[in-house]
Every structure is written in C-alpha cells, then in structure tokens.
Amino acid sequence: MLEKMGWKAGQGLGTTGEGIVTPIESKMRPEKSGIAFKGFKEKTEQSKMEARRRGEVVSDDEDPRTRKVKKKEREAKEKKAEAWRKPKKVKTVVQHKTYEEILAEAGAEMSGSSGIGQIIDATGAVPREVTSLADVSMNSWTPSADSTRIPEVRHNIRLIAESCKTDLDGLAREAKLLEERKKLVIQEDLRLRKRIEDEAESRLQQVQLVTTDIDAKVRAFSSDYDASLDDFSLLFYKLTTDFEAEFDRYRLDEVVVAAIAPLVRRMVAQWQPLEDPKAFVSTFRNWRRALRVNVDETPPETQVDVYGTKTLTAAPVQIQKPMTPFESLLWNVWLPKVRTAINNEWSPKAPQPALKLYEAWSTFLPPFIRDNMLDQLILPKVQKAVADWNAKLDQVPLQTIVFPWLPHVGLRLEDFVGDARRKLKSLLRNWAVGDDLPAGLKAWKDVFDVSDWDSMLLKYIVPKLGATLRDDFRVNPRNQNMEPIQHVFQWSDILRLSVLSQLFETEFFPKWLDVLHVWLIQPKVSFEEVAQWYSFWKGSFPESLQGVSGISRGFTRGLQLMNQAIELGPDAPSRLPKPDYRAEQALASAPNSPRSGMTKSIPTRPSARTQEITFRSIVEEFAASHNLLFIPTGRAHEKSRMPLFRVSPSVDGKGGLLVYILDDAVWAAAEGVGGATEDYKAISLDSMVLRAMSS
User: Fold this and answer.
1) What whole-number distance in Å separates Cα of residue 661 and Cα of residue 651?
2) pLDDT beyond 50 at 413
3) Which residues have CB under 8 Å from 645's CB, separation 6+?
4) pLDDT band at 600 (very low <50, low <70, confident <90, very high)
5) 570 DSSP assignment
6) DSSP element (H, E) containing 615
7) Is it the case that residue 611 has pLDDT exceeding 70?
8) Which among 590, 588, 580, 595 has a CA at the least distance from the CA of 510?
9) Could you tell me the residue ranges of all domains in the chain?
C-alpha cells in the first residue's frame, strides 16, 4: 500500500523523503514520575537517529556513551570537592576533671607520693612492665631495617615521656606544698580570730569603763547646778579617738546624747537665745564627731556607660532617714526654746538678735532644722512686718526689715521680696515733690531688674520732677529760688543720667537761655556780672551731672550766646537772635541731621544682677539715644492686649507716640490721610523716632 502511494524502500515518507524511515518507538517513563523527572529525556533513540538523518544537530547529552562519560567526570569532581568541604559536626563528650583528679591519675597523690604509676616498656617485641624510665633508657638499640621497630619514633616518645614525668613530679611537689600551706593558713586564721576576739573583748571592756566614767559624771552633775558641758569633753574625745571603730559599730553616740540630755535640758530652760545666741554652739562644734553631726553620706554608685568611655554617677535615692539622737535632742529641746523666743520676744524691725542667732547656728544645724527655723519662724514674721509697714507711721526704713535676710533666703528670694517691691512702688507713687527722699532708696536698685527700676521711676518720679521744673521753677537773677531745682538734684544718684539730661534740656535750659538773652540785650549790660551768674549756675550742678552731654551742651549754648553778644557790641540789643533751644535740639536729634551724632545719651548703667537682653531694652536704648523717653502708660491695647508705652520727648508724658512691642517689633497706629488710624502696624525704629518728635 505504501509503494502504491510512492514510497520506496530505504527512503523516508513524503514527496521529498523527509519523513521517518523506521516505525515509531515509545519510551517508558519511570513509575510514578512526571515529565523531565530528575532530568529524564523523553526523546527515543529512533527519534534521535531520524533527526541526524535529516541533518539536524543532536546534543551529545542524548548519547548514552557521552552521558556515561560525563557522569563519571561529575562523580570525580564531586568526590574531589568533598575533600574541601567542612566536615560534619560530631558531638564530643567533654569530661571535666579537677586538679586533684588529674594528679591522682598521674600517680601524684595528695599524701605526697611523687610516683607516676605503671610504666610499660613497648620497645621490644613483647611489652613488659618496668619500675622507672631509667630501665627503658638502659635498653640499647641499634639501627635496623625492620619497619616494625621504628626507633626514631620510640626515641621521640621517650623524650616526651621524660618531659611529662618532670612536669608531673613538679605538680606533685607543688600540690604537697600547697596542702601544707593550707594547713598553716587555717591554723593562723584560727589563731588570729581568737586573738581578735580576745582584743575585742578587752577593748569592749575598756569602752565600758569609759561609759562608766561618763555615767558617774552624769550622776555627779545631776545635783550640781553650776555644771558645764565642757566637763564631758575629755571623756568624749577619748571615746572617739581611742575607740573609733567601736564608736561607729555600737552607735555610741546614743551614749553621748543620753549623757548630756539632762544637763542640756536644764541649761536650755535658763537660756535666752536672743541675748546669748552663741551659747552651746562652740561646745557642740567640738563634739561634732561624737554627736555624728553632718556625717558624710555614702557616695553615689558609679557605673560605666554603654560605650565604656566615661563614668556615670547614679542619682542618689532619696530615702527618709530617722533622726539621729542628737538631731532628736535639737528638735525636741533646742528648737522649742528658739521658737518661743522668736515668736514672743523678737521684732523684725530690729533684726540683729535673730540674725545673729541664725548665723551662729545655720552652718551647724541639720538642714531640716535650719529650714524649719527660717521658713516657719523668721520669714513669716518678716513678711508680716513688710505687709504692715507704713512709710508715714514707721520710723524704720523698709530695707532695715528686708535686706539683712537677703543673703540667707536663697531660692525663696522672689517670693520674699515681692511684697517689699509692691510697698516700694506704693511709696514712690505717693511721693510728692518737697518730701524727703525715701531713706535707703538707692540700695533697692539691686533688688529690681534694670528695666523694672527705670520704668518705675519714669512712671512715678520723672513726671513730678518735670512738673516742678516747668511750673514751680523760675530763673530770677535778682532773687533766685533754688528749692525746686534742689528737689531734682537729690535724685541725681538714683535716676538714669540720660533721663536727667533730657529733663534739664526740656524744662531748665529753655528758661535759662531766655533770661540770659534778655540780660544780654540790655543797653548797659555788664558782661562781668553775666559771667559770674553763668559760673554760679554751672557750679550749682553736681559734678556727676556737669559732664553729661545734654547739660554740658546747654551751658555751651549759653557761652555761644554770650560770645555773640560780645562780638555784636552795641548792636547786640537789635541783632542778637533769641534762642529757640527746643527747636535746636529737635533739629539736632533728627536721624538725618549732621549733629545727630552729638546727641547720643550716656548708656544705661549695668545691673549688678545678670539679666537677659530683650528687644524692649534695645528699643529703650534707641529711644534714649535720640533724647526720647520710653514711658509705660499703664494701659493695654484693645486687640492685642499688650501694654502700651509712650515714646515722647517731654518728661510730662504729653504728646509723643503710643506703641506696643510684640514679636520683636514695634507696633504703632498706621498713618492715614487724616492722621493716625486705629489699626496698628509694625514700624521701624527710625520711623518711631521721627513720628515721636513730630507729634
């Protein structure tokens, strides 16, 4: 049938003979395996032969012979790689032996035997037991061709054995010496312990003798009302120096306090703390060791940080400790007497008795008793005295009550001086020109911050001084009344120099120059009298004010006016111009004026207390450098609720510019067509100065 269809034997099927020649074969897969299981090839040998017949390239992997060769090469390669692989871990059983067991196995018993046990001579054909290695070394041997005798190995083994024997003998001797030394140490320890016990018993008996002497002295003093605490000093000194270890171990301070307690109670009952503040303190200081006063605490533990580079100190744990016997004696006997004296006999207006008492005992008392004395007894009475103080009725200045306690209040300072500051502000608020300067007012400078101090004076004092120069002071060469200006001079050591300079430039020199001009334009003026009058006024100012720029500038302007009058001569009455000092100063203070650099005021004084530089202080200094005052108004802005300040060239606080400070900026009312509006905007410092001078 195939031949009828055109097939010829030896050729493939198809018109071109590309078909198969042999019948189709099948190849069975291994049981329960899928396609290409473990690299199984599906192609049969018949299909490979047909592919080669057609000219296709068939991989060598399909050839059984090639596959067999490659399998051998792969096995050889794996076998070679196995030699470099890390061997499998085998669990090793480790048996630990003590030093004594090792010595026992080596034959070095703790009894002192130095033998190394049984020795087997294996150098011959038959192993035999020998008594020592010397018998082995005596056996002669000669080189031999017998491979079983290996003389070199036996020689090396013998050398190793001899070295080990030497080491084991040394270890055995060392063990014996250590055992004997251990016995000696045990015997010495027992002997020393017995000696310590005997000595302790003897020292304890000596301590008991001292305490017996103390008890006898206490009994003798029980009926002697003239006894003194100093009589115990010798016994206490012996107790603390000769028996220092026993004193701490057996807490003998209880014995000391129990001995002096009856005498201390009797003496404290007759003691007047305010009259004799140093009583007992010198004796107690000498007994500091015996009374365990201010005993050093255990230092805090130290630990190394995670990097091991530095030592960290652990914060001590706050543990409430019971009072020592002496602290209990002070709390129950000494403190009640002091409390009674301070509450019933002491007045804060005469602080010295209580101050001396506190200073005498403060460095010796335990902290909790010292704080109780200050917080519960002294400061409440001082604060009540400050609250009741009246400037008109009390003859004692306020600083006499407050200042003596300032070095001792520490962190309580703000609460302590708060009421005193309010009292001082009230005093300055009620002060009137003509009243005496408040006593000790200058000393309060260091209690206030610089800004608070200057603001208080600008608010309560400067307007009153300006009003008296403006309304009460008259320049009259014939009958000069110096009382108003003397009221201003008395504040020269308290007010800031720049404020005083502005005060005189605004209120004094315009009047003084007007009178000088009127005098110089007279037809028959006497320049000698004018010069004397000038010298009188310049000498009237304190030396601390004569060098101030604003005051020296006013007198210089008077000299210029006198020189102009001399130069004009007879024409002075008609040609000498009348000075307008306020206009001249306003022109000189303008930022763009060439003379503005001459109007800088003297900087503010440095405070004795350290303070932070704020933006408000910068604004105040800038205003002062242009002869402007930065005065608190006591009001607040309606929207921002920030305090308002008036920047004004006049000390009376009239005119000027209202501003407030917020976010490190100066805020003022915005300028509109008809003037200032109600909206506040941030302005520069130069704009603040220009608007304050022009308003």
Assistant:
1) 21
2) yes
3) 630, 631, 632, 633, 658, 659, 660, 661
4) very low
5) G
6) helix 615-625
7) no
8) 580
9) 100-192, 222-314+321-386, 461-599, 615-694
